[in-house]
Amino acid sequence: MSNLALRVISAAVLGPIAIGATYLGGWPFVLFWALAAGAVLWEWVKLVEGPIWKTAGIFYAGVLLVAPLVLRGDVELGFHAIILLFAIVWTTDIAGYFAGRAIGGPKLWPTISPKKTWSGALAGLFGAMVMTVVGASFFGSFNSAALAGIALLLSVCSQAGDLLESWIKRRFGAKDASHLIPGHGGVMDRLDGFWAAAFVG
Predict the structure, then answer these.
(1) Cβ-proximal residues to 26 (8 Å cutoff; 6+ apart), any chain
(2) % of the chain at pLDDT higher than 90
(3) Phi, psi at residue 108, to the nearest 5°?
């Protein structure tokens, strides 16, 4: 089975679980992110070397647990905030992946992530902005310019989080954080963009 097929299948399984936990809130949401943060901490400790680097994993995993809980804690807007984050991060990833493969062109940062291109990065930004504005229109009247600006910022953060994790893996000579998610590598590989966007959001 191709890597793309594995990615699609994994996303089709994990995506609805993440959305379902977000919709339910409460303990299912806490459990979901506690498991994710625990898996990321395990991957981090296995990946890095040295006391300072291993200690940094507590902060990294802690952000992944605390940031979604804080955002979801808003009774009125919490659910929508998390769904917005999912939409921005997932669209950035998907649009960037396919545009980068189809268009190609100059590399974004070849020494850190050899496969990423400027065309993919820009497609991810544009796709996230369009998805956010169009998606929000189904839920009422919003300031489209403000939403596009938020999407732009969080899409940049998502891509920065992806590059940060790529730099860490390259520093310690690893291709993937683990092999827990077929087609994606580890949980950290799948949530690096969400981690950065949630941290800023």
Answers:
(1) none
(2) 81
(3) -70, -50
